[in-house]
Design goal:
Glucose Permease (Domain IIA); mainly beta; 9% helix; eight-stranded antiparallel sheet; 2 domains; Immunoglobulin-like
Length: 279
């Protein structure tokens, strides 16, 4: 065993089960915390420490905040290392708990939507490039560590992870929270951030906005009818940013809110349970 020294390590695990506030007393420990697939984890350590996940370096803010996430179907252990400037290491094993997801069936979708033509497919490809580029932004913002609020006061009609069948054909899982609403209903920013993108007419998602909350954590809003902000604008939590719509390939007015850690799709319902990391 090497020399022991305390390394401050706090994890705020968004899981519905646990918000861990862990201070380790030795440098070499192995621990497993329960949390669900689709979770966002916000950690806090000393700013001078290095953080890695499965060997990949994670950005640490000047205040010691960092973020990471796990996918809908992640089943494996992940190794989180906190390394001090002197080389002392805190090791934790993270393994998400398996979830059961709902099956939803939507009928009456037109063949044009189910089988888009070549021109539409090309357009979808361009849309996806813009979205992927926005989700690769790794800014120094730390709004992700301050907690989130719901972007709309509405009934939840669709949940993360559910498998949808359109006209009996299975499609990719749903990765957002759907809120019922009327066209023009106000949409608020769930946390502080910067507007990375707004496109009014994407093929599938219609009016689409992405907000950067820092360190790869973003919010995406689909099917909007209007935007009250523009790319590059700074926004505050609770600020009016857009209006509910039925644009794109939507069956009616509603808001689809999604949260990502880079290209990792997370569960907004769990993100809403996040406690600020400065408590």
């Amino acid at each position: 065993m090497g020399k022991h020294r305390t390394i401050l390590l706090k994890l705020y695990i968004v899981s519905g089960l646990l918000f861990a506030n862990v201070v380790s007393t030795q440098a070499e420990t192995v621990s497993s915390e329960p949390f669900f697939q689709g979770s966002l984890i916000v950690g806090k350590t000393k700013p001078e420490n290095t953080v890695t996940l499965n060997g990949n370096k994670i950005k640490v803010s000047k205040q010691g905040d960092y973020a990471l996430g796990f996918s809908r179907d992640e089943k494996n252990n992940s190794e989180l290392l906190i390394i001090s400037p002197s080389g002392e290491t805190e090791k934790r094993l993270l393994k998400p708990l398996k979830r059961n997801y709902n099956i939803q069936r939507v009928n009456g979708i037109s063949k044009k939507i189910m089988n888009p033509n070549k021109k539409a497919i090309s357009r979808v490809g361009e849309d996806n490039k813009k979205i992927r580029a926005a989700r690769q932004v790794d800014s120094d913002l730390t709004a992700f560590s301050q907690g989130f609020i719901a972007p709309i006061d509405g009934i939840i009609t669709g949940v993360y992870g559910s498998q949808r069948y359109y006209n009996g054909v299975p499609k990719t899982p749903h990765y957002g929270l759907d809120y019922a609403g009327k066209k023009g209903d106000p949409v608020k920013s769930p946390a502080d951030g910067k507007i990375l993108m707004y496109v009014a007419d994407m093929f599938y998602s219609g009016g689409t906005m992405i907000i950067d909350h820092g360190h790869g954590v973003t919010s995406t809003f689909l099917h909007l009818s209007d935007s009250y902000v523009k790319e590059g604008d700074d926004v505050k939590q609770g600020e009016l940013i857009a209006a509910v719509g039925a644009s794109g390939r939507a069956t009616g007015p509603h808001l689809d809110w999604r949260v990502n850690w880079f290209n990792m799709r997370l569960d907004p319902a769990l993100v809403l349970k996040l406690k600020p990391s400065n408590l």
